[in-house]
Amino acid sequence: MAGPKGYSSYHGKGSKWKIVVAVLLVLVIIGALVVIRMQKYVVYDDSGRPRLDLPQFSEKQPDSSQSAPADGSGDTNLIIEEPEQTAFQAVALPVGPLTDWRSAWTAASAGGTYHAAVYTVKDTDGFVYVDNQAAPAAAVKTVEGAGAAVGDMLKDDSVYTVAKIACFRDPIASSGDLEGMGLKNTGGYIFYDGNNDRWLDPAKPAARQYLIDLASACAAAGFDEILLTDVSYPSVGKLNKIDYGAVATGLPNSLQEEITSFLTQMKTALAQYGVKLSIQLPSNLITAGETAVSDSGQSLAGIVPQVDRVYADAEGDPSALDLLKAKMAAVSKDTEFIPVLTGLDGISSESYLIAT
């Protein structure tokens, strides 16, 4: 039954149109945002016509910062820079207690440009120029302030430091403990060589340990390299009067074995410090070649593979230096050769030690 005429319910005129208008307004706002968002993807061709260049449809360009494919494919040219090889250019400081590091360095450099300093810790007279408990009291020769001066040198990061240690030629320690460390003659007394020098016996454990302890102390203090000299038996004088003890059988090969054994012990002891181990050899031993064995117990084949560097006097014409380099390379390509010079006149070498 229909309701009373004139009383039908009324919902308001145009309510549906308001909804339509609201929807259109939202669409207009969204469209405006899209246009603003897409502006950065609008590009123009040569004729000036605009077009969209969306990222997902663009060809990906190779990233020059990325490395080439592992299989080597592609046209990318990979350039690998080899590490620059720095020449070793060193100068020896005067032998004696160090009192003023900077003055000693400046005086030794004498206007030259060097990056390494060689400091004699123990000389061929047996004197030790640092405080060291392993050294005999009579051997230690320091002055007030010497310890601080050595410390200042080791703290200077701009300078590569080398501790030079004369090993078995030692008149002080050999005479101070003849039975434990000294090299004796066949009569039971201290042996004097042709230069009136006295020696430690390379076969005696106490003699070896003294040198190893001294070198280890230098490495622990901060030296970058340990340079050994006089790593041998005597080579001049009445060698037949030397009491070689248990190693007398099989000379000179047995002497070679003792020298090689000592270097092996030294290398093992220094391994924990990460320092270089080097040795100075006579130039005539190098020119004799890898198969030669000296009466002193030295041989290239036994020594060179044990060390990082070999130093040798190289005065003379350039051809002599070239010969030394060639002989060294024939034994080991991993061991660096450093010529010891008194000056650079007439010698062309990237690496060298200037002696004082």
Can you summarize this structure?
By secondary structure, the chain is α/β, with parallel strands linked by helices. The protein contains nine helices and ten strands. It has two domains: 18-57; 89-354, TIM Barrel (Alpha-Beta Barrel).
- Tell me, what's the shape? elongated
Helical residues, percent: 25-40%
- Tell how many strands the DSSP assignment holds: 10
What proportion of the residues form beta strands (DSSP E)?
5-15%
CATH first level of the largest domain: Alpha Beta
CATH fold topology of the largest domain? TIM Barrel
**CATH superfamily membership of the largest domain, which one?**
Glycosidases
Order of helices and strands: HEEEHEHEHHEHEHHEHEE
Gyration radius (Cα, Å) is 40 Å
Amino- and carboxy-terminal Cα gap: 133 Å
Q: What structural class do you assign from the helix and strand content?
A: alpha/beta
Continuous helix count: 9
Uncertain runs with pLDDT below 50, 5 residues or more? Answer: 1-13, 56-76, 80-85
